[in-house]
Specification:
The complex is a heterodimer of chains A (418) and B (434). With 418 residues, chain A is an alpha/beta fold. Helix content of chain A is 29%, strand content 18%. Helices cover 48% and strands 8% of the residues of chain B. The chains are: A alpha/beta (418), B alpha/beta (434).
Chain lengths: 418, 434
């Protein structure tokens, strides 16, 4: 029997497993599939917007106090959020990807739509896209690549005052195969010959003094080498712009975290969907996952639910207006009437009630009911399924995941909060 | 117009969030343009395969190897591999299939015919001339790792011969051996019986037939249904009597449990009874271990052992019980493979147009084994075709984990692949020897 069973292998699940294992607990992770890191930008957002009609947050730590009292940051306390992010940045796996930021300040990095997104920590491969850098940009795309349009990116950045131009290079520079997604293109660039071909093609189009933005395909395993090689041969800083899913920087982070967990002896079992559980006297005895026949029983002393939000699979809904948490059917703050899930406008600056609701937690990260009572004595929750936050709108997804994951792991390990 | 299907496989496509994780992990689309990836061929193309639509002219579904890695990694629970298998069956029902695929689907018949005169059959099949001929005429790749017939009799022959020596006990377990153990690798069955008897269980080996997986993966659902029905007729009563049915071929047990009922939409009482009674042998042994009911009198085996849990084992979603139990053996140092697939995928890698794809897919695994260094004597893997592919790709002998366990119990010679202390019987068959 393990001390902690984590359900979910996104950032919250993996970070909690790592912290708990570091604190001496025996941990196992089960997940239905690969987690949401595969479609994340790979950077660590803490707080980008408190009010989306206002300019982006510059100093996230100082604006946590402006969030609603039900926000997980407020429940856990700003200091714990900050320590969780610092703990994360110090992890060997995370350091290997060169995560950094502006100590206390957000940085602004370009999106594949040509917007500036505020984020707190970015991997080394993205940092040269920083808006604070005054040098001009060139955005380079591959002809025929889906979902990455350098001219669109450049045009939108220009409209916001950036000096930028766009160019396309032939697809065949990177791959001989015709139809590749971003992760497969990144794998092609693990090959030194493709790296040399790319460097050669870029030398023809990059002008001195330009920073070079490319789709995030600069190597899946050999990323640091690709980055170093291109920087050296071009004499210009090179950076990746995250793409539509699959998003390679997120995949690299997932892989690095999983490797560190593996080295610590923590098993991450993919393909195991939690489908049931047994509780007695308010305590969870075990969780069951689906197999090809009988459910598989996972016993543990404590359980952490990190199955994600609507997209991650932590919630489900039906046409009658029922909106539920999929494993424990925990109490949710989501409206249980369908007409109240969404406002009339998709991009309403106040966000959508269905996405703002979720599992409410107490100051220790344990799910509570409407009366504030802990639902199960040995159950914690972390990540996107938490109530009181719309992580996409706030650009707080990774911060919420890390803060709640670390808080849960430390509490389960018996560390005093605060 | 055909009615809209409410089958769970078809419905699952609505869960697809287009995140591309399946294509990112698909071992086949990684190495060939002929398969654009599970997302496109599965949930996306499925939109055009609804009832009443003309047959999709796209042939790429035929290049899905059916390894089920897509299902494993999907965060939304889409049954992608099953969507593909059903789409292929629809194509076969509509346009027919090559004779080769009919033959490969009926490997049980081939195996049975060959076992009448194994030496002759081995000679007839395994010589360069006939392999070249088989490639040119049939499209069976000449380098592909086809099995050899057991020259020392079938597993059934051995059972008959050793009937008097078999353990009788109040604790009973049913053994599903599958075709490969019956005709090609009877030593796997002997090791399984020895391990079960060592733990005090009487082993019942009822009449059984091929699980039908080769037919399912070649798209012949009609014949597969007859095969599955055959096993239901033979095994459902044992299942209802509460006897566990354990199998050493992890793809056979997966078929009995889930693949056949799901693909064929067979969810009646006998099918469910059989599903619930069937276990991968290590799944069942792990349950015994957790109940404190497994003997752990292992003698040390000095082995550095690369272990690959094959796709069909991982598709059980039971974790890796063989790895857990082998790790209990003193001296055994396991290197766990995280390679996606060995490439062979049942009969996929035997086909001439897919042989190279299968080898390219397997490169990841072969490389992992090579990385483990000089001291490695064997690899371990739960599936027969994958072991043959592993041997083909690494030139190292491969063993089933049940052989490792039997060796650790001191009842099995891992190198010679035979039981220890068993009187050797010269096997005599009717035909001339090579």
């Amino acid at each position: 029997m393990v001390d902690l069973l984590v359900i979910g292998a996104g950032l919250a699940g993996l970070a909690a497993a790592l912290r708990a294992s570091e604190l001496g607990l025996k941990v196992k992770v089960i997940a239905k599939g690969h987690g949401a890191l595969y479609w994340s930008s790979g950077s660590i957002d803490v707080l980008g917007y408190v009010d989306s009609t206002q300019p982006a947050v510059e100093r996230p730590w100082e604006q946590i106090a402006d969030l609603g009292a039900e926000h997980p940051y407020r429940r856990l306390g700003a200091e714990r959020v900050r320590r969780a992010v610092e703990w994360f940045a110090g992890q060997e796996s995370v350091r290997s990807l060169g995560y950094a930021g502006h100590a206390g300040y957000n940085q602004l990095l370009p999106t594949p739509a040509g917007a500036w997104r505020p984020t707190y920590l970015a991997p080394a491969g993205q940092r040269a896209g920083d808006r604070a850098d005054l040098r001009p940009l060139v955005v380079v795309g591959l002809q025929g690549m889906r979902d990455f349009y350098p001219h669109l990116i450049a045009r939108n950045l220009q409209l916001q005052g950036q000096t930028v131009r766009a160019v396309q290079i032939p697809w065949s520079v990177v791959s001989e195969q015709r139809d590749r997604n971003t992760a497969q293109l990144a794998e092609s660039l693990d090959d030194p010959q493709s790296q040399q071909r790319l460097a050669g093609a870029l030398q023809l189009v990059v002008q001195p003094g330009e920073r070079v933005g490319l789709p995030a395909i600069l190597g899946r395993h050999a990323h640091p080498a690709v980055l170093a090689l291109l920087g050296e041969q071009l004499g210009s800083p090179v950076f990746e712009i995250p793409t539509l899913p699959p998003n390679v920087p997120g995949i690299r982070l997932a892989a690095a975290l999983r490797q560190q967990l593996q080295q610590r002896g923590v098993r991450v079992e993919i393909g195991m969907e939690g489908v049931g559980f047994r509780a007695q006297a308010g305590e969870i005895q075990w969780v069951e996952s689906a197999t090809s026949a009988r459910p598989l029983v996972h016993r543990a002393r404590a359980f952490l639910l990190a199955t994600g939000g609507v997209l991650g699979g932590g919630f489900d809904s039906d046409h009658t207006g029922r909106f539920w948490e999929t494993l424990f059917d925990l109490p949710l703050t989501v409206p249980q009437e369908r007409q109240h899930w969404f406002r009339p406008h998709f991009l309403d600056p106040r966000g959508q009630p269905a996405l703002h609701g979720g599992v409410a937690i107490d100051m220790h990260g344990q799910p509570v009911d409407a009366q504030g009572q802990v639902v199960y004595t040995n159950l914690w929750a972390a990540g996107c399924l938490l109530a009181g936050t719309d992580p996409v709108l706030e650009r707080s997804m990774e911060g919420v995941a890390l803060a709640s994951a670390v808080a849960a792991a430390e509490r389960i390990a018996g560390l005093a909060p605060g | 117009m055909a009615p809209i299907s409410w089958h769970s496989v078809d419905l699952s496509l609505d869960e697809c969030i287009k995140c591309n994780i399946c294509t990112t992990h698909c071992p086949v689309s990684a190495v060939t343009d002929r398969f654009p990836g599970p997302k496109y061929v599965g949930p996306q193309a499925q939109r055009f395969r609804e009832g009443g639509q003309p047959l999709v002219p796209d042939h790429s579904v035929d290049y899905c190897s059916g390894c089920r890695v897509c299902n494993e990694v999907c965060p939304a629970g889409v049954k992608i591999a099953e969507l593909n298998a059903r789409a292929r069956a629809e194509r076969v029902a509509h346009s027919g299939m090559p004779l080769r695929n009919r033959l490969l689907g009926r490997n049980d018949l081939l195996a049975k015919v060959g076992s009448v005169a194994p030496a002759l059959a081995n000679f007839a099949l395994h010589n360069p001339v006939s392999r070249l001929l088989a490639e040119k005429v049939m499209g069976i790749a000449r380098e592909a790792p086809l099995p050899t017939w057991s020259a020392s009799g079938t597993f059934g022959d051995w059972l008959k011969r050793t009937q008097g020596q078999r353990l009788r006990s109040a604790q009973k377990v049913v053994y599903f051996h599958g075709c490969a153990t019956m005709y090609y690798e009877p030593f796997i069955g002997k090791a399984a019986v020895a391990v079960l008897e060592h733990n005090g269980y009487e082993v019942i080996v009822p009449e059984q037939n091929c699980c039908g997986l080769p037919l399912l993966s070649n798209g012949e659902f009609g014949a597969a249904r007859r095969y599955h029905q055959g096993n239901l007729d033979k095994l459902a009563d044992l299942a209802r009597a509460g006897l566990p049915i354990v199998g050493s071929s992890t793809s056979c047990t997966l078929t009995l449990k889930e693949e056949a009922p799901e693909l064929l939409d067979l969810h009646d009482e006998p099918a469910t009874a059989l599903q619930m009674a069937t276990y991968d042998i290590f799944e069942w042994l792990r349950e015994r271990y957790e109940a404190g009911d497994l003997r752990t009198d292992f003698k040390p085996l000095a082995l550095r052992l690369p272990y690959h849990a094959p796709c069909q084992q991982r598709a059980h979603r039971i974790g890796k019980p063989a790895l857990e139990l082998m790790a209990l053996i003193p001296g055994v140092e396991i290197a766990e493979s995280h390679a996606r697939c060995c490439g062979i995928a049942g009969t996929y890698g035997y086909k001439v147009e897919k042989y190279q794809i299968a080898m390219d897919v397997g490169a990841e695994l072969f490389h992992f084994v090579a990385e483990q260094g000089e001291g490695v004597r064997y690899t371990a893997c739960d599936s027969e075709t994958c072991r043959w592919q592993l041997e083909h790709g690494t030139a190292l002998p491969s063993r089933h984990p049940i052989e490792i366990l039997a060796a650790a119990y001191g009842v099995y010679d891992l190198q010679r692949r035979e039981l220890i202390d068993e009187p050797r019987v010269e096997y005599r068959s009717a035909q001339t020897t090579r």
